């Protein structure tokens, strides 16, 4: 396959609004302490075919990232890891593989937040519907039971194959963390936020040692389906977060 490259000059100037929204999501992930050091990664496909995507740069704290810092990569570029500004190898392995093999996936957010990672560490990583937040993800999660180490190319391809066979909102990556999927940055961020809230509720409910009040499958599915079309809260949430950044940290748009 021929090498495809995207110049740094193009990298810095293209997709202005998409860059700003992805940078905003990174800043808020840091504010909410849902990130882990400089180890997590977000990506956003920006062209119709899904082959070009934005990715946060290697070894940069989420709280410092600006729109112009985001890398613009192509899934078929065989020289990505030789670039002067090469991405983290695991970010390329996971996000590059998924965008390459699943062109319909637009936004990916991979994080290791505490309660979601505790859930991913349990022998049974299912999230039962015990409240509205947990029910949001009823039948919309795939659990990866076969962690294979760092998410380099082979591991990324394996995850991509799982996602192509199991359309979902969240992949619970056993022994690892979570991968959240959305059609937009706002949707992916909202899912990440509420999945961590849901995981926290469930883990703390387990701490009580008391029986759980489980919803019926019918109620859980009805609620999850209703919330999928309740876009006002999804986009209203992220719009408000962007407004806060515009007032308090406007440099994220630089």
Brief characterization of the structure:
The chain has 254 residues and is α+β, with helices and mostly antiparallel strands. It is built from nine helices and seven strands, in the order H-H-E-E-E-H-E-H-H-E-H-E-E-H-H-H. The N terminus is likely disordered.
What portion of residues is helical?
A: 40-55%
Beta content: 5-15%
Computed CA radius of gyration, to the nearest angstrom = 18 Å
**Which sequence of SSEs, written as H and E, runs from N to C?**
HHEEEHEHHEHEEHHH
C-alpha termini separation: 35 Å
CATH architecture: 3-Layer(aba) Sandwich
CATH class reads: Alpha Beta
For the largest beta-sheet, the strand count, sense and barrel status come to:
7 strands, mixed
Count of individual domains = 1
Report the strand count.
7
Mean pLDDT: 92
Secondary-structure-based class equals alpha+beta
The largest beta-sheet arranges its strands as 3-2-1-4-7-6-5
- What is the fourth-level CATH superfamily? Class II aldolase/adducin N-terminal domain
Shape: globular
Model regions low in confidence, pLDDT < 50 over at least 5 residues:
1-10
* CATH third-tier fold name: L-fuculose-1-phosphate Aldolase
Q: Count of helical segments? A: 9
Describe the structure using short key phrases.
single chain; 7-stranded mixed β-sheet; alpha+beta; 254 residues; L-fuculose-1-phosphate Aldolase; 9 helices; disordered N terminus
Give a description of the structure:
This protein is an alpha+beta fold. The protein has a single domain (8-253), classed as Class II aldolase/adducin N-terminal domain (L-fuculose-1-phosphate Aldolase, 3-Layer(aba) Sandwich). It contains nine helices and seven strands. It has helices at residues 8-13, 16-31, 89-101, 114-121, 132-135, 153-165, 185-207, 217-228, 231-248, and strands spanning 41-45, 52-55, 71-74, 107-111, 141-144, 170-173, 177-182. Strands 3-2-1-4-7-6-5 form a seven-stranded mixed β-sheet, sandwiched between helices. A hairpin with a 6-residue loop joins strand 1 and strand 2. Helix 2 packs across helix 9 and helix 3 (89-101) runs parallel beside helix 6. The longest helix is centred in the C-terminal third of the chain and has 23 residues, at 185-207.
